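sry for the spam today, last one i promise. C-alpha cells for design, 524 residues
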C-alpha cells in the first residue's frame, strides 16, 4: 500500500511509481537528467560552432542556424496535446479502474498522434514543393538548402508521437527516464554531426546526422520502452477508432496549452528566421544567432530547473496542500532567480572574451545586443516557474490569454524594430514581450493566487538579482584585470578562479541548518 500524503505534500506511489521515492529524490533525479540535457544543449549550440567555421564557412553556419530553428519550430505542431495528456493521466489516478481508462486513452491518443504526424509531414513536403524554402529564407545560393529543410522539419515532426510517452512518464513520476533517453539520442546526434561536418561540410549529411538519432530514440520509447514499463498498454486491444467528435474535443481542450507552448517555441526560433529574412547582411545574421545562444542558455537553465518543481507544485495543488505549495513555490522561485543571476553575472564578465575565442574573431562582438538579451533573460527568470506551474495546474485559459497576447505583441513589434535596428530590434521586442506579458501579467497573477505576501516576495527577488549580479560581475572583471597574459589559457584560469571563489562563498550552504534558516527568511 502506498504511503499517504503528508503535510508537506510528499507522497509515495501515486506520483512516483515507487513507494520508496521521496520528493527530494524525484527532484534530484529530474535535475540530474535536466543538467545533462542542458550540458548537451550547450555543446550543440557552442562546441560545434568553431567546427562549422573551421571546416565550412559563415554562410554554412548561418544556414545551419536557420535549419536548426526551423526544426525546433516544428515542435509547435504538438498543439498542446502533451499538456492535455498529462492532465488527463493525472486525473485518472482518482478514478475507478484508473489504469484501464488510462490505457484506453493512451491507445486513442496514440492513433491521433500518428495521424497528425503523417498529415503534417505530407503538408510540409507539398508546401516546400510549392514554395522553395531556400528562396523564402534567402539561401538561393545553396542548392541543398531546400532538401535539408524538408529532412529537418519532417524528421522533427516524426518525433511527435513520443510526446505522449513522455506525458505518461511525467504523470507517473518517471520524468527523468524520458530525459535520459533523449540525452543519449542528443549525444549520438552530436557525434554524428561532428563526423558529417568534418567529412563533408554539407547541409544534408549534417541534418541527417542531427535528426536520425532522435527519430530512433523516439521510436524506441513508443514501441519498446513504454509497453515494457506499462504492460497494460500492450494488453489493451481496441479496434474502435476514436470518433471525430472525440478527436475534436481533444484538440479543443488542448488548444490553450497549444497556444502557450507554441508561443514559447515560436519565440525561441522565430526570431532567427525573422532576422534571416529581413537582414541582408549574413554576418549580422550569424552574429544574432550566436549572441542569442547566450540568452538561450540562461532561459534553458531556468526551464530545466523549474520542470521537476512544476510537477510537484501541480500535485500539491491537486491534493489541496496549500502550505506546502506556498513554501515550495517561494523557495523554487528564489532558486531559479539565484541560478539565473549567478550565471548572468559570469556571462557579463566573461562572454566577450569567450565570444572572440569561440568565433576565432571572424564575427564581431555586439555589446548592446548581448547586454539586452542577458538582462532580459535574467529579469524573466521567475516567470518560468509560474509558467510551468500553470501548465501542471490545468489553467489553460490563463495560459492562452497571456501567451497569446505575448505572441501577438512580438509579431507586432519585431518586424518594425528589426527593420529599423537590425538584430537589436528583434532582441528588444523579445525582451519587452517577456517582461510585459509573461512576467508582468502571468507571473504576477500566479504569485497573487499562490503566495500570502507576493509584493514582498517580488521585492526580495529584485534585491537578490541586484546583489548577486553586481557582485559576480565585479568579481569576474577584477579577476580578468589581475591575471596576466592573453588567449585561451588566461580565459580558462579566470573562469576557474571565479568558479572557485563563488564555490567557496557558497560553502555555508552545505549546512542543512543554515539552509533552513535562509529558507525561513524567504517571504511567502
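last one done:
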Amino acid at each position: 500500500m502506498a504511503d499517504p500524503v503528508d503535510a508537506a505534500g510528499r507522497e509515495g506511489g501515486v506520483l512516483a511509481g515507487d513507494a520508496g521515492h521521496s520528493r527530494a529524490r524525484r527532484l534530484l533525479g529530474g535535475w540530474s537528467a535536466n543538467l545533462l540535457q542542458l550540458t548537451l544543449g550547450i555543446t550543440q549550440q557552442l562546441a560545434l560552432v568553431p567546427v562549422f567555421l573551421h571546416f565550412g564557412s559563415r554562410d554554412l553556419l548561418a544556414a545551419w542556424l536557420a535549419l536548426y530553428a526551423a526544426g525546433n519550430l516544428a515542435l509547435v505542431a504538438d498543439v498542446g496535446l502533451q499538456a492535455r495528456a498529462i492532465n488527463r493521466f493525472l486525473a485518472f489516478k482518482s478514478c475507478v479502474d484508473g489504469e484501464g481508462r488510462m490505457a484506453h486513452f493512451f491507445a486513442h491518443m496514440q492513433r491521433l498522434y500518428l495521424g497528425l504526424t503523417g498529415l503534417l509531414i505530407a503538408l510540409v513536403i507539398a508546401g516546400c514543393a510549392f514554395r522553395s524554402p531556400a528562396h523564402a529564407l534567402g539561401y538561393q545560393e545553396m542548392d541543398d538548402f531546400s532538401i535539408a529543410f524538408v529532412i529537418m522539419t519532417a524528421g522533427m515532426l516524426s518525433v511527435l508521437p513520443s510526446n505522449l510517452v513522455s506525458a505518461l512518464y511525467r504523470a507517473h513520476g518517471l520524468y527523468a527516464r524520458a530525459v535520459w533517453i533523449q540525452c543519449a539520442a542528443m549525444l549520438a546526434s552530436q557525434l554524428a554531426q561532428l563526423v558529417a561536418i568534418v567529412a563533408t561540410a554539407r547541409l544534408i549529411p549534417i541534418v541527417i546526422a542531427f535528426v536520425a538519432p532522435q527519430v530512433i530514440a523516439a521510436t524506441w520509447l513508443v514501441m519498446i520502452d513504454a509497453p515494457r514499463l506499462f504492460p497494460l498498454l500492450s494488453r489493451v486491444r481496441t479496434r474502435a477508432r476514436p470518433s471525430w467528435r472525440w478527436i475534436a474535443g481533444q484538440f479543443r481542450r488542448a488548444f490553450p496549452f497549444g497556444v502557450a507552448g507554441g508561443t514559447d517555441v515560436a519565440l525561441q526560433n522565430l526570431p532567427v528566421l525573422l532576422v534571416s529574412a529581413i537582414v541582408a547582411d549574413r554576418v549580422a545574421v550569424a552574429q544574432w544567432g550566436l549572441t542569442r545562444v547566450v540568452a538561450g542558455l540562461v532561459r534553458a537553465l531556468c526551464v530545466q530547473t523549474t520542470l521537476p518543481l512544476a510537477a510537484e507544485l501541480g500535485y500539491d495543488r491537486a491534493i489541496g496542500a496549500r502550505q506546502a505549495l506556498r513554501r515550495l513555490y517561494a523557495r523554487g522561485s528564489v532558486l531559479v532567480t539565484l541560478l539565473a543571476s549567478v550565471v548572468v553575472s559570469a556571462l557579463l564578465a566573461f562572454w566577450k572574451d569567450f565570444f572572440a575565442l569561440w568565433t576565432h574573431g571572424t564575427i564581431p562582438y555586439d555589446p548592446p545586443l548581448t547586454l539586452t538579451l542577458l538582462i532580459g533573460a535574467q529579469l524573466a527568470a521567475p516567470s518560468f516557474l509560474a509558467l510551468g506551474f500553470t501548465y501542471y495546474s490545468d489553467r489553460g485559459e490563463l495560459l492562452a490569454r497571456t501567451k497569446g497576447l505575448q505572441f501577438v505583441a512580438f509579431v507586432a513589434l519585431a518586424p518594425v524594430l528589426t527593420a529599423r535596428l537590425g538584430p537589436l530590434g528583434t532582441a528588444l521586442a523579445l525582451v519587452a514581450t517577456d517582461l510585459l506579458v509573461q512576467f508582468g501579467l502571468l507571473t504576477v497573477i500566479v504569485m497573487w493566487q499562490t503566495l500570502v505576501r507576493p509584493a514582498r516576495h517580488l521585492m526580495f527577488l529584485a534585491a537578490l538579482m541586484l546583489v548577486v549580479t553586481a557582485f559576480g560581475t565585479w568579481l569576474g572583471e577584477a579577476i580578468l584585470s589581475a591575471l596576466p597574459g592573453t588567449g585561451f589559457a588566461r580565459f580558462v584560469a579566470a573562469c576557474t578562479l571565479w568558479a572557485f571563489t563563488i564555490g567557496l562563498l557558497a560553502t555555508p550552504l552545505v549546512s542543512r541548518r543554515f539552509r533552513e534558516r535562509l529558507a525561513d527568511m524567504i517571504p511567502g
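The chain is about 80% helix and 0% strand. ok im logging off now
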